[in-house]
Specification:
The complex is a heterotrimer. Chain A is mainly α. Chain A is 49% helix and 10% strand. Chain B is elongated, with a radius of gyration of 22 Å. The chains are: A mainly alpha, B alpha/beta, C alpha/beta. At the B-C interface, loops of B face α5 and α6 of C.
């Protein structure tokens, strides 16, 4: 999850199965805890805790997925660029992202 | 195992202020088992540091490694080839491992990435509790297998004190009274005569109070 | 006589003993001790001076004892094992004895977590049971616990505290027995409000003849108000105040609760005085020393006997 931010993501949406419905029993509950941890890290280093969010969906909820995705993208747009990307734009020669 | 907790990222960033090229070194021993200093934690910490430093406009280069054990010389030697290429090593092993690295690589600053905790057990996933203080003179056979030095907040040898209430210690309702545990266990073992004996004053000289300790096994040297 | 202290003499002569306590101030002003001590004087056979109780830093217990002594009051030195290792404990025992302090109460001490310095390192080198043993060894055998000979043994009437109400209840009498075996001459109990439970404890102790081996001073604390009773019940570990006791004081209008508390305390002392196995009372009038005369006099325990 943190790698995604290093690679230039402004936001990361994590999607798991509905709670209680995980193929790996408690995998999605553990994932939730890890997302919370990453969120806390992002908050503490000034990237913004809201840049990562976990949604729970069943495989049959396509329209809900689309709605969540739109909602999340909208939220990240409002937050603007991640400070990482902002810094990379300022110092293009140091940018890992290249031609962004 | 030896447990620990991560240092606050702010504190680590402050330690790293003078450096732009470091090693983050984990350990596959105890700290991997208690999820504070293993390979995965190295990755998370390194990522976090890169993000934080880049967001602050000053990138940092990090080499991520994990050693089998930072408390054994043969594994520490594995870093010999490249340590000098970095400005500092941030170790997330226990305090013993960090110090052993510092002893072996004398010209590179060693920084602690975790606060080393205690000798403990995994009570359940994500929760560890202290069981041993390594006092060097074990009395568990007399106390029903429960350590008074560790489990009693006052390390009493004739507990419980007056602060024991319904099995809780006076220092906190979430702390079980060590002596209540001992008494329950001695009763179950029918060994209460151990309880009523006056115990000799503890010799703390085998504990840390006697100075830094050393074990020498002639048969192994 | 083991120590020749006034308290020891009063008890040996078969009198019902009375002790009280003075908490030293949070500062260096001796007048605070003198003011409190003035209320104590003449009402008791010995006065406890607490040792950094609840882990809050106060004037040292030995200093407090000396101020009392200057005023002609017999001091009883409280000593906790929280703050001093065995070297300091032994040294302070020698010093206190040299200065003429003859009564000692051996305690563990509240955990430092409760005080102003929760970050302090605690000591607990030996525990209170072992402090009793250590003092007796020095007094009776004339040697340090290390085996080295003493150049003059300290003289103390050795006391300990017992809490008949703490958990687990079934080891409370065995613990008393252990303290007696370690060398305790007298015990002061935790404040008694639950008389029924205390009687169960005492009867069990008497069945084993413990009251003949140790002088039992029953602890009492007058309640100032229903609020104080409720607070103590809730906040003080090992404090057992039955609802009926709280109700009795709570039924009074606020302005009469203090008087009721004193009346209840006097009744309790009178009841204890008549009980076999009880050798005296320890009246802990916390920050209410001015009422000691009224309480002790009211219980018919004045004037205090003079034993030569």
């Amino acid at each position: 999850m943190l790698k995604a931010f290093e690679n230039g993501a402004d936001g990361v949406m994590v999607v798991g199965c509905l709670e209680g419905d995980c193929h790996y029993l408690s995998g999605n509950i553990r994932a939730k805890a890890r997302v919370q941890r990453v969120s806390a890290i992002l908050g503490r280093i000034g990237l913004g805790a809201e840049r990562i969010h976990m949604y729970n969906l069943s495989a049959g909820e396509g329209s809900k997925f689309a709605a969540f995705a739109n909602e999340f993208v909208e939220k990240i747009r409002e937050m603007g660029q991640s400070p990482i990307n902002a810094a990379r734009l300022k110092v293009p020669e140091q940018s890992a992202g290249g031609e962004r | 195992m030896i447990t620990g907790t991560p240092k606050p990222i702010e504190e680590i960033l402050e330690m790293l202020e003078p450096y732009d090229k470091i090693i983050v070194a984990g350990c596959y021993g105890c700290v991997t088992v208690c999820r504070v200093g293993g390979e995965k934690e190295v990755q998370v910490l390194a990522s976090t540091l890169r993000l934080a430093r880049e967001a602050a406009g000053r990138k940092i280069t990090i080499k991520e490694i994990s050693l089998e054990r930072q408390c054994d010389p043969e594994y520490i030697e594995q870093m010999r080839g490249y340590v000098q290429d970095y400005q500092a090593v941030l170790s997330i092993a226990c305090g013993a491992g960090i110090q052993f690295l510092a002893e072996k690589y004398t010209t590179t600053p060693l920084l602690p990435g975790i606060n080393t905790g205690f000798l403990g057990v995994t009570e359940r996933q994500g929760e560890w509790a202290e069981r041993c203080q390594g006092c060097g003179d074990c009395v568990l056979h007399l106390t029903g297998g429960i350590c008074p030095v560790t489990r009693c907040a006052k390390s009493l040898f004739h507990g419980p004190c007056g602060g024991s209430v319904q099995g809780h210690c006076e220092v906190g309702k979430d702390v079980p009274c060590g002596w209540q545990l001992i008494i329950d266990r001695l009763k179950a073992l029918d060994q209460m005569d151990n309880y009523t004996k006056l115990k000799p004053y503890k010799g703390w000289n085998t504990s840390r109070d006697g100075g830094p300790r050393r074990i020498v096994r002639e048969d192994m040297i | 006589m083991k120590s020749g202290s006034n308290l020891e003499k009063v008890l040996a002569a078969g009198h019902f003993a009375v002790t009280a306590e003075c908490g030293p101030p949070r500062g260096a002003d001796p007048e605070v001790v003198r003011r409190k001590a003035a209320y104590v004087k003449g009402n008791i056979d010995a006065c406890n001076v607490t040792d950094n109780q609840t882990s809050v830093v106060r004037m040292s217990s030995i200093a407090g004892c000396m101020i009392l002594k200057e005023m002609g009051i017999e001091p009883l030195l409280q000593m906790v094992v929280r703050d001093r290792n065995r070297i300091a404990l032994q040294s302070d025992l020698l010093g206190a004895s040299a200065l003429g302090v003859r009564n000692l109460l051996c305690l563990s001490g509240d955990h430092q977590k409760f005080g102003d310095d929760p970050q302090a390192k605690n000591v607990f080198d030996i525990d209170s049971m072992q402090l009793i043993h250590l003092t007796r060894t020095m007094r009776d055998d004339g040697v340090f616990p290390s085996g080295q000979k003493l150049d003059g043994a300290p003289k103390f009437f050795i006391g300990c505290a017992v809490n008949p109400f703490a958990d687990p209840f079934e080891i409370r009498v065995p613990r008393l027995k252990m303290k007696i075996n370690a060398g305790a001459d007298f015990v002061q109990t935790q404040c008694i409000y639950n008389m029924e439970k205390f009687k169960v404890y005492l009867e069990d102790a008497m069945r084993q003849g413990l009251h003949e081996k140790v002088k039992i001073l029953a602890g009492v604390t007058p309640l100032k108000s229903a609020g104080m009773a409720k607070f103590m019940k809730k906040m003080v570990a090992g404090m057992d105040i039955p609802d009926a006791v709280i109700k009795r004081i709570a039924d009074e209008p606020k302005e009469k609760q203090a008087a009721k508390g004193i009346e209840m305390c006097i009744e309790l002392i009178q009841e204890l005085k008549e009980m076999e196995g009880i050798a005296g009372v320890h009246v802990m009038a916390i920050e209410w020393e001015e009422k000691l005369n009224e309480i002790i006099g009211g219980a018919g325990l004045l004037p205090r006997p003079v034993v030569e």
